Amino acid sequence: MRNVKVIQHSIVIQAPVAQLWQRMFDPQLYREWIAAFCEGSYYQGHWQQGETIRFLDPNGNGMVAKIVEYRPMEFISVSHLGFVYAGQDDLDSAEVTSWAPAYENFYFTSRGDSTELRIEQEIAPVYEDFMQQAWPNALQKLKTLAER
């Protein structure tokens, strides 16, 4: 049985949804705001429905996931499936099966010239405190990038 907590964060960004979308998922700009979680992090793969994507630290370790729903400038649902260690996917260890799959959903709502971004994420309880602290920092960095 999965043992996950659900956390939510949101922010209003003074930029149209298309601008936020572009700045959020551009590979170079992604590195800037995601650094709130781990300096030097990046993604490998494509933000398209059905695609496998890896979220990696500078050593190549991290998470493997699948984009389960992709509606440009509206909604993305990511299913985190396991860990990546030394270039190998771990999808079935006891640690992974205790929480996987864990969903991370991004909701984009246009508010005139602004956009509300809401994140809803399932996480293993051991990561709850870290994620509750990191998300506000990441969203603030993203806001700065999107509004410039």
Automatic annotation (TrEMBL):
Q: Which InterPro entries match?
A: ASHA1/2-like_C (IPR013538), START-like_dom_sf (IPR023393)
What region holds the Activator of Hsp90 ATPase homologue 1/2-like C-terminal domain? 15-146
Q: Name the residues that span the membrane.
A: none
Which domain of life, per UniProt? Bacteria
UniProt similarity note: Belongs to the AHA1 family.
Q: What is the name listed in the Swiss-Prot or TrEMBL entry for this protein?
A: Activator of Hsp90 ATPase 1 family protein
